[in-house]
């Protein structure tokens, strides 16, 4: 519940937030976080037409009535919203973004697995609306990215770099968006191009390791929320920088920080470094 405003001060209007993928893992987490936030209000809930949740109250899974039905109709789902939070699939995010652009609704994009062409389309949409996009909304992961920048600069030669990530059995993209972002940050810090130096799989007689490569390993299993380790393996020592998520709440809280950051902005593409003041 929002605290009552101090006597003589006007209450701030809540941020009106629509959620896409409303019945997904992150959709549920976001609706719960919005309800608990005190400064955000659920203003729309979108899902695919085949979702069994269509027509239900978006907060029914919490045992509450939000008054917002889950809908597949983009017009209805966005009509009351200032910002859409989207954790769905790349093709869904792009369709939602087209509707946001038409209606001048800002967007927070957490979806991962975009192609280069899809990223271009998002950058294009950011000419007309303000967008925060990040493969990981958690504060901890974004601080970890800064640590990796520093470590990679200092360990650019003589250390083999490997990125290991583990996620739940339902995850559909690999490596994770976060692992790829870690790779990009490290490659930039050591003056390499990730497209040239990434190794995504090894099998059979691979030959000795090329020191200029950045390797990726993917684990999928059970209900692992999201673990990422970057290994810098040198001669006589190794450094491991690890982040582990134990709850999706951290991604939802980061998303709401992005919503607040976007308030009053009209255009531009931002990420969590901008939101958290880490740039
Ligand atoms: N940036 C970050 O911090 C984080 C990013 N993610 C990313 O968010 C995305 C969603 O993750 P998660 O919530 O676990 O996934 P879920 O599969 O649990 O939820 C996805 C939701 O989107 C719906 N959906 C699927 N396809 C489409 C489509 N084409 N158009 C519109 N909606 C669609 C699903 O409906 P249905 O189930 O009926 O198919 C479901 O409601 C993933 O890309 C994941 O990597 C996840 C966590 C944190
Ligand atoms: O699908 C997930 O669950 C997650 N996806 C994001 C990613 O691909 O990096 C973020 C987080 O790791 C959870």
Description:
There is one protein chain. The chain has 279 residues and is an alpha/beta fold. Helix content is 34%, strand content 23%. The strands form two sheets. The chain has a seven-stranded parallel β-sheet with strand order 3-2-1-4-5-6-12, with helices on both faces. Strands 8-9-7-10-11 form a five-stranded mixed β-sheet. Helix 3 (90-103) links the parallel strand 4 (83-86) and strand 5. The structure holds NADPH dihydro-nicotinamide-adenine-dinucleotide phosphate and the ligand O=C(O)C1=N[C@H](C(=O)O)C[C@H](O)C1. NADPH dihydro-nicotinamide-adenine-dinucleotide phosphate (NDP) binds next to helix 1 and helix 3.
Unreliable residue stretches:
none
CATH topology of the largest domain: Rossmann fold
Mean pLDDT: 96
Structural domains: how many: 2
Cα end-to-end separation? 33 Å
Q: Please write the string of helix (H) and strand (E) elements.
A: EHEEHEHEHEHEHHEEEEHEH
Radius of gyration: 20 Å
Discrete helix count: 9
Number of strands: 12
| Assembly category | single chain
Alpha-beta classification: alpha/beta
Question: What's the CATH H-level homologous superfamily of the largest domain?
Answer: NAD(P)-binding Rossmann-like Domain
Strand content: 15-25%
Second-tier CATH architecture of the largest domain: 3-Layer(aba) Sandwich
Largest sheet strand order: 3-2-1-4-5-6-12
Largest sheet: 7 strands, parallel
Q: Which overall shape is indicated by the principal axes computed on the Cα atoms? A: elongated
Bound molecules: NADPH dihydro-nicotinamide-adenine-dinucleotide phosphate, ligand LZUJQKHR
CATH class of the largest domain: Alpha Beta
Q: Provide the helix percentage.
A: 25-40%
Family: Belongs to the DapB family.
InterPro entries: DapB_C (IPR022663), DapB_N (IPR000846), DapB_N_CS (IPR022664), DHDPR_bac (IPR023940), NAD(P)-bd_dom_sf (IPR036291)
Domain Dihydrodipicolinate reductase N-terminal: 16-137
EC number: 1.17.1.8
């Amino acid at each position: 519940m929002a605290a009552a405003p101090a006597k003589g001060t006007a209450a701030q209007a809540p941020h009106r937030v629509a959620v896409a993928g409303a019945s997904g893992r992150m959709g549920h987490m976001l609706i719960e976080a919005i309800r608990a936030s005190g400064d955000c209000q659920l203003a729309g809930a979108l899902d695919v037409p085949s979702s069994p949740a269509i027509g239900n109250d978006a907060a029914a899974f919490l045992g509450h009535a939000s008054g917002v039905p889950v809908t597949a109709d983009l017009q209805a789902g966005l009509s009351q919203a200032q910002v859409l939070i989207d954790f769905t699939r790349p093709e869904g995010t792009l369709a939602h973004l087209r509707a946001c652009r038409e209606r001048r609704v800002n967007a927070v994009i957490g979806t991962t697995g975009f192609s280069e062409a899809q990223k271009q389309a998002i950058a294009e949409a950011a000419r007309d609306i303000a967008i925060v996009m990040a493969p990981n909304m958690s504060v901890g992961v974004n601080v970890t990215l800064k640590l990796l920048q520093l470590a990679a600069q200092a360990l650019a030669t003589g250390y083999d770099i490997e990125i290991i990530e583990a996620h739940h059995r339902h995850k559909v993209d690999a490596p994770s968006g976060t692992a790829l972002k870690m790779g990009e940050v490290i490659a930039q810090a050591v003056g390499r191009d990730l497209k040239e130096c990434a190794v995504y799989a090894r099998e059979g007689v691979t030959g000795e390791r090329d020191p200029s490569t950045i390797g990726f390993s993917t684990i999928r299993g059970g209900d692992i929320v999201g673990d990422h380790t970057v290994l810098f393996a040198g001669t006589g020592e190794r450094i491991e920088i690890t982040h582990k998520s134990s709850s999706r709440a951290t991604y939802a809280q980061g998303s709401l920080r992005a919503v607040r950051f976007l308030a009053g902005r009209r255009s531009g593409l931002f990420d969590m470094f901008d939101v958290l003041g880490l740039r």
